[in-house]
Amino acid sequence: xxxxxxxxxxxxxxxxxxxxxxxxWQVVVDTSTGLVHDGxxxxxxxxxxxxxxxxxxxxxxxxxxxxxxxR
Length: 71
What we know:
The protein has strands spanning 2-4, 10-13, 24-30, 35-36, 47-48, 53-56, 60-67. By secondary structure, the protein is an all-beta fold. Strands 1, 3, 4, 5 and 7 form a 5-stranded antiparallel beta sheet that branches. Strands 2-6 form a two-stranded antiparallel sheet. The two termini are 21 Å apart. 8% of the residues are buried. The model has no long low-confidence stretch (mean pLDDT 80).
């Protein structure tokens, strides 16, 4: 969960903690773009790997879901 309550965008580092090779974070909700994934997981929702940065818009949040290639 990445939350920005500031009036300007804030940059976050995508968290680690995914022990499976090939695991990633899937964006479930992004209030800056209006993305609300309806529960049908697929390639249409963005995926992030640990380490890179992501900008969260002012007064917005991003909800991430851990994914593993074996599931």
